Amino acid sequence: MVNKFKTVCLTAAIASSSATFAGGLLTNTNQHVAFNRMMSREASIGIDGVYYNPAGVVFMGEGNHLAINWQLAYQTRTIKNDYKLFTNNVNNPTTPRDFKGKAFAPVIPSFQYAYNKGRWSLQGNFALTGGGGKCTFDNGLGSFEKIVGETAMGAIGLAGAIDHVANTILVPGYPQDPTKFKPMFTSDKAFGSKGAYSFNSYMHGRQYYFGLSAGAAYKVSDNFSVYAGLRGIYATCNYYGYVENIKVGNMPLYQVLDPSKENSANIELSCDQSGIGFTPMLAVDYKTGRWNFSAKYEFKTRMRLKNKSVNKLPSIGNLDDNLKNQMNKLFTGTFMAAGMPQEQAMIKAEQTSNKVLEDPTVVATTAGLKQQFDSKINEALGEYADGKKIAGDIPSLLTVGVGYSPIDELRINVGFHWFDDYNATSYNNRNKLLKKRGTLEFNAGVEYDVTKKITVSTGWQNTNYGLTDKYMDDKSFVVGSNSVGLGGVYHITKKLDFSVAYFHTFYNHVKTSETVTLAPGKSYTYNSDYTRNNNAFAAGVNITF
After folding, report:
1. How many CB atoms lie within 10 A of CB 94?
2. 418/134 Cα distance (integer angstroms)
3. Please, which residues bridge with residue 211 across strands?
């Protein structure tokens, strides 16, 4: 059980900082204020098109066009877990329980630039193309506490096996008369027999994917244009988490791992990741009358993140020796209380401890724990081992947009996004747990020029991930959503616009359930309910010079 305990601690922080933005699993599509206020920009002609419709930017007027954007995003992630073992938490014996993570990004900048001359448009874009914030779980995660609770049950199981063998050796008439049982490790002063536990934990993650793109659009005719570009991406991530002061019953866990060090049972993850990737991009735009049609394709970005880690983990290798030392002290005291001289008591205690640890039941129990630990610790550390490179591809993306302007003052857009998440390689091919269809997004937006100085807009976007129950995990989860945005533009001059926007995302609830078998005939149901809440504010200026 100890191995599972470590696995969850390490992985909890790793995925706690997934994006606070719109888009696919690793893609941020709100890179300009215009998106926040209208949601559908794939077929619009404007400086924001450097990202949304790069082929269409060539239809803007000649000269230099620059956009400077600022966003603030705040998100909470809530997982409601219901598990019977949670009632063994001495500090919070309740179930179901809400576990909340908070992500806050106060300054999210982005810049778009285009130089139009004749039939050409040279363009550049800088923005957060993925990741995009920090997330903190002040009290850990439900899956983590689940394993702590199961660890406590495993600990009292081992304690019970040791006490049973010790009583069989030392107590006359036991086990024939169970009332003669004298607890040692199962006493209230040690592990106890109820599986009670306590601990402190903290998880924090930071994840930024900075993207810098350059490309060119060419006006093939007055109605048709094409674009080709390349985006370079630099990813930087940090994950930090700890679990400390772990106690089962009234026994601090460190006392059976290394009694000489109070922090020997503490677990700490400190991992920095960085990597570079490149995204080729192609786009087209076609204008006819009051209609505009566009499409863009971004190829899959191969990302390999290199770890620089300083992780601290306890070792279970000395479990037998530390258990023996604990028993030696207990047995020596017992024999001396019965009148045996100290030296003789110490010898007999040593012999008795050896008999207990050599018992087949105890040997099997401790061996099982060690075997699980060795395999799981490699699984837990494998992704975050110092110097290792981890797969973290950004999926290919197809966008299609249609725009219609029935009158000069009114513009109506609809759009579609397809993210091929299933074929974007992630660690241990977790992407293959998704549905093959990937992520689908549909959006619609409208903007209206109220006066020559003021434009107002609103829009909607639906995001539908190809999720499966096996993919859902509180250490890394997304849920489908509907986003609504609104805002406006104040046209200060013909060459200077100021925009403001707000959008809110309404997330679905995804519920899962699993049966956990702790021992033959002893099973519990672990239920999870996943959801999020997201708000974003934005402001920016568009300048022509």
Report:
1. 8
2. 26
3. 127, 233
Residue indicated by tokens 């994917």: 209
Residues shown for the chain: 545
pLDDT digits (tens, 9 = 90+) for 86-109: 999 999 999 999 988 888 888 889
Q: Which residue has better confidence, 448 or 374?
A: 448
Distance CA 146, CA 199 (A): 12
Given the structure tokens 């938490």, which residue do they identify? 89
State the chain's maximal CA–CA distance in angstroms.
106
Range in 7-21, 180-194, 369-383, 471-485 the model is least confident about? 7-21
Cα 3 to Cα 210, 267, 373, 376, 537: the distances in Å are 36, 12, 4, 6, 43
Q: What is the pLDDT of residue 3?
A: 40
Q: Each residue of 43-84: pLDDT tens digit?
A: 999 999 999 999 999 999 999 999 999 999 888 889 999 999
Q: Which two tokens stand for residue 316?
A: 């279970």
What sections of 338-425 are H helices per DSSP?
Answer: 342-358, 360-382
Residue 377: its pLDDT value, please? 61
Contacts of 211 (CB under 8 A, 6+ apart): 125, 126, 127, 128, 129, 130, 231, 232, 233, 279
Which is nearest to 499 in space by CA: 467, 461, 543, 530? 543
> Could you write out the DSSP letters of every residue in 425-443?
-BGGGGGGGS-TT-EEEEE
H/E element, 147: helix 142-170
Instruction: Name beta bridge partners: 288.
Output: 291
Report, as an integer, the average pLDDT of 313-325.
82
Please check whether residue 165 is in contact with residue 359, taking contact to mean a CB–CB distance below 8 angstroms.
yes
* Peptide bond between residue 96 and the one before it cis (omega within 30 degrees of 0): yes
In the predicted model, what is the mean pLDDT of the chain?
Answer: 88
Q: What is the 3-state secondary structure (H, E, C) of 77-134?
A: EEEEEECHHHHHECCCCCCCEEEEEEEEEEEEEEEEEEEEECCEEEEEEEEEEEEEEE
Distance from C-alpha of 16 to C-alpha of 133, rounded to nearest angstrom: 10
Rounded to 5 degrees, φ, ψ at 538 are: -150, 150
Q: Which of 23, 104, 20, 36 is nearest to 484 (CA)?
A: 36
User: What backbone phi and psi angles, to 5 degrees, belong to 374?
Assistant: -60, -40
Q: Do 10 and 267 touch, CB atoms closer than 8 A?
A: yes
CB atoms near residue 38 (< 10 Å): 30
